[in-house]
Amino acid sequence: MTRKIVDLSLTFREGMRGVGFEPANRIANGDSYNTTTLSLYSHAGTHMDAPRHFIDDGGTIDNLDLEKCIGPALVLDLTAKPANSLITVNDIAPWADRIGQGTRLLLRTDWDQHADLPDYRTHFPRISLELAQWLADRGVWLVGVQGPSVASLVPEFRQELIDVHQTLLAAAIVIVEGLANLDVLDVDEIQLIALPLKIDGCDGSPTRPVAIIDSASETGNPNE
């Protein structure tokens, strides 16, 4: 067996929304070591939402069910969806018979390629309220998207933002936003590891998810 690990996160860097770096110690300044003070918005870059994000008395990120964050995940190719469109139940119909209680879903739109463009936060394909309710009814455990949010961040669609998040989070669905590199995956099911920082009472956390792909070695026995 051969194993490939694919990083599914954006790189935190200076200039990214909600990210700051400040030197604390530097060898060049006479210190014995290098350290850096980090400033991170709880929903910066690739991150997870806890229910507390949109439900005032909802669960916090330190109490997230980690079982939902590790295990098989389906990668749905939705790259045909145009910018600023809604992802509907009909769009994921080809995979409907594989989606049920405990399913983890990664919605591939390749929108991470817009991460440095002005339209990244305004025109990403997003989950419709209809689909959010469908996922909740099915008992899905986790849904990940390549845009900065599962719902529109444009002010005039504020209610959509609230309704979609509340529907998913009230059903205890783990939301992962800002995914990257789903285009690198050459299979439609991977093993996912996506863990949040353990931050007391917080509404969300940056995460560095990875996809693990095991395949039979070309030179080995595929039955081993």
Keywords:
Glucose Oxidase, domain 1, single chain, 13 strands, 224 residues, 9-stranded mixed sheet
SSE class: mainly beta
Determine Rg (CA atoms, Å).
18 Å
Uncertain regions spanning at least 5 consecutive residues:
none
CATH topology heading:
Glucose Oxidase, domain 1
How many strands, which pairing sense, and closed or not: the largest β-sheet?
A: 9 strands, mixed
Top CATH class: Alpha Beta
Range of strand content: 25-35%
Q: How far apart are the termini?
A: 8 Å
The average pLDDT is: 96
How many E-type strands?
A: 13
What's the architecture in CATH terms?
3-Layer(bba) Sandwich
The 3D shape can be described as globular
CATH homologous superfamily placement: Putative cyclase
Number of helices: 2
* Secondary-structure element series: EEEEEEEEHEHEEEE
Provide structural commentary:
By secondary structure, the protein is mainly beta. The chain has a single domain, classed as Putative cyclase (Glucose Oxidase, domain 1), CATH 3.50.30. The protein has two helices and 13 strands. The chain has helices at 129-138, 158-170, and strands spanning 2-7, 19-25, 35-40, 47-49, 70-77, 86-87, 104-108, 126-127, 142-145, 174-177, 189-193, 204-206, 210-215. β9, α2 and β10 (174-177) form a beta-alpha-beta unit. The longest helix has 13 residues, at 158-170. The chain is globular. The mean pLDDT is 96.
